[in-house]
Design brief:
about 80 residues, 1 helix, about 15% helix, globular
Length: about 80
């Protein structure tokens, strides 16, 4: 089973690797931490569509990929590569 991990940036500039639970163009669900200390978070596209942002325990986290890039990632990982 493939477990996808992505890097998100915290509001203090620190990068953190998180596990992806569900990835769609409209929303990305991630888990921070492990075991009993894990916390779930949903990342939604920003207004300009250039990143995904969410809040965890009052702190903002940002996934710095555009909605178009995420759609391409989903197509590539699912084996439905777009025909050009």
């Amino acid at each position: 089973m493939y477990i996808e991990k992505i890097k998100v940036r915290m509001e203090n500039g620190q990068e953190l690797e998180v596990v992806v639970l569900n990835k769609r163009a409209e929303r990305i669900s991630v888990v921070l931490g492990e075991g009993v200390h894990c916390v779930k978070c949903d990342l939604a596209p920003t207004r300009n569509g250039l990143a995904y942002a969410g809040s965890i325990m009052g702190r903002e986290i940002v996934y710095e990929r555009s909605r178009k890039q995420v759609e391409d990632d989903i197509d590539r990982l699912s084996g439905r590569g777009k025909v050009r």
